[in-house]
Specification:
1 helix, 80 residues, elongated, alpha+beta, 4-stranded antiparallel sheet
């Protein structure tokens, strides 16, 4: 089973841009599944999967800001 690249995109957030690649995969039953690979930083990726690219686009647009902001908060030192 091989993934086929069907679309590339970018999501902008503040002054940063995050690359998104959408793939199609045929299951053993012949169904189509789609996945999105979002590159947050080198070696840091988010993988999503769904039944349609449209759903993946919507989820990615919500998930990227939440992920980036939550990681920025987690990286802050805590008050003692």
């Amino acid at each position: 089973m091989f993934r086929t690249l069907v679309k590339t995109d970018a999501i902008g957030l503040d002054d940063r841009t995050f690359a998104v690649r959408y793939f199609e995969l045929r299951t053993m039953r012949g169904d189509r599944r789609y996945s999105a690979e979002i590159v947050i930083a080198p070696g840091d990726r988010i993988i999503l999967d769904d039944d349609s690219v449209l759903n993946l686009e919507a989820r990615a647009n919500c998930l990227v800001p939440a992920t980036v902001y939550s990681r920025a908060l987690a990286a802050r030192p805590t008050a003692a």
